[in-house]
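Progress against Task 2.4 (sequence-to-structure conversion) is shown through the following example record, which the project officer requested during the mid-term review.
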Amino acid sequence: MRHNCAGRKLSRTSSHRLALMRNMVTSLLEHERIETTEAKAKELRMEAEKMITLAKKGDLHARRQALAFIRDKDVVHKLFGEIKDRYLDRNGGYTKIAKLRFRHGDAAPISVIELIGRQEEAKTKKKKGKAAEAMEKVKGLISKDKDKESKAETEKTE
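Structure tokens generated for the chain above:
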């Protein structure tokens, strides 16, 4: 029985599990949304919410504790600058987990974990491949030819 055994082992050694969580928390706070397995997302939620709670304290000791866990100083600066302001009036529940699909290779449940209240980035147009660009050129030429034909037909009828 697993009485008083908190947390998931995730089939990793303790040092590997700690490194995994540190990297995932850093990525989540940097990108504000990541895709991972459901079990990892549930573990990540606990650690990420601890970091946001530290940021809400805002003192030097809390900043040093966050720096001891998070791998990137810029992410800690973002956490204590931008992210904490969103959650000053909220007592926990800073993240949201949504189930997406099952992974093709091993059928592991994939979820997305994101910070609540994040700003949606403006979606930029995807760069198109050469084949797509060639097709657009062809379509553009065809439409120009049709326009010329329709102009010629209207001139003939007049």
